[in-house]
Amino acid sequence: METKQMTSEEKQDMMFNRLLSPKDPQGNDLAFKSPEAKNNYTASIKRIWDAIRLKKPDRVPVTIFPSMFPINHAKMTVEEAMYDYGKCVSAFRQYTLEFRPDVQWGAAAPGPGTFFEKLDYKLYKWPGHGVDPTHSYQCVEGEYMNEDEYDALITDPSFYFRNFYLPRVFGALQGFTMLPPFTGILEMYGLAFSFIPFGLPPVQNTYNKLFEAGAEALKWAGAMGGFDAEMTSEGIPNILGGFTKAPFDTIGDTLRGTKGIMLDMYRRPEKLIAAMEALTPIMINMGIASAQQTGNPLIFIPLHKGADGFLSDQQFRKFYWPTLQKVILGLIDGGCVPFPAAEGAYNTRLEIIKDLPKGKTMWMFDQTDMAKAKKIVGDNICLFGNVSSAMLELGDPDEVKEYAKRLIDTAGKDGGFVMANGAFFDRAKPENIKTLIEFTKEYGV
């Protein structure tokens, strides 16, 4: 009730101020390893907060947002990290303490393999389950929503997800197809009829699988939370609150698939737009709820299908941006810091996204021209990136240093920039990671 009376700026300030006073699970002030660790933690939070607000920090913040690099760097397989949570944490601990970025992003990237097994997850193949043990997981894109099901999704997205989408991507959740809409549970007369499905073996089996999966998720989350607390005590905060998605990507990635949504833009554009509008408040609430649960303000938004060349400018303006913009503004209103990751190049999108509120978002740019981004959107948006994965794996320290210098001199001038990689990566030369971080700390003052 209190937060509804606050402005978005006050809500955001409250979240960052909470970050500056971390607590242990008992609610006591978290014990830092040393006074230096506490000072480093506070300085890192303030540094990146200043960058987001487009103020000039004491120096350019630097971080690495990797995918499976910590696992490979620790000489273990991704499969090992997915099934042994202790090993996963060990790999991310080694990586984080060795390179000491200003902020870290948790150890959750590999995910819990046993949890996926218990639910018979079909949307992805993962190491040991269709993918080599040393590789990252892979999405199995398909049409998990039929073209004639738009009305069902638009009318009641929660019912559609439970009764149609989830049973198609989780083999263990077939019982959901038998459940009635909960909105039909209204009066005493006939009430028991609505609960009959819960007495049926397929539904009970589904719930039993859910209980098992929930217990496994809790076990995994305990390991991940322990890692974050340990890194905080070392003076390296995690500011990632969770994630949400652009409504276009929600439909294009996991419901209709790329082919399906491409055809829908031509064959049923009104239905597609109506479905994205129906999903928009859900995507906003998903991000806000995650931030409130974790206490961290940044909400990651991977932008999969909005890049230059993927959609025309007209398609981006009509189908992609309107609902994404609403999601971003909704998150800001909820006190979050939207953190879109513009995969590919966004050079032709900069003029469209530039009118976002000043100092409220941070954008991860992959292949976008950063000098152009600084000129067009730099007065409103904090830039993040865009050191290439190829350079980190195939380049040498001198190349990394030269590129980092160029970024600091252009994108980092007068604040509003965080040095980082531009896309997730699994492999890199450790000396390149070390050079990127140490050079930024020295030159970015």
Provide structural commentary.
This protein has 445 residues and is of the alpha/beta class. 51% of the residues lie in helices and 9% in strands. The chain contains 18 helices and nine strands. Strands 4-5-6-7-8-9 form a six-stranded parallel sheet. The relative contact order is 0.12.
Treating each run of at least 4 consecutive H or I residues as one helix, how many helices? Answer: 18
Portion of residues in beta strands equals 5-15%
- Look at the structure and give the mean pLDDT: 95
Q: Give the total of beta strands.
A: 9
Structural class: alpha/beta
Across the major sheet, the strand order is 4-5-6-7-8-9
Helix content: 40-55%
Give the topology string: H per helix, E per strand: HHHHHHEEEHHHEHHHEHEHEHEHHEH
What's the gyration radius in Å?
Answer: 22 Å
Shape: globular
Largest sheet: 6 strands, parallel
Poorly predicted segments: none
Question: What is the first-to-last residue Cα distance?
Answer: 42 Å
What secondary-structure arrangement, pairings included, does this model have?
Elements: H1 8-19, H2 35-52, H3 69-73, H4 78-83, H5 85-99, H6 113-119, E1 124-127, E2 130-131, E3 138-139, H7 150-155, H8 157-169, H9 201-233, E4 240-243, H10 247-255, H11 257-267, H12 269-294, E5 298-303, H13 313-333, E6 337-342, H14 350-353, E7 362-365, H15 370-377, E8 382-387, H16 389-394, H17 397-410, E9 417-421, H18 430-443
Parallel strand pairs: 1-2, 4-5, 5-6, 6-7, 7-8, 8-9
Antiparallel strand pairs: 1-3
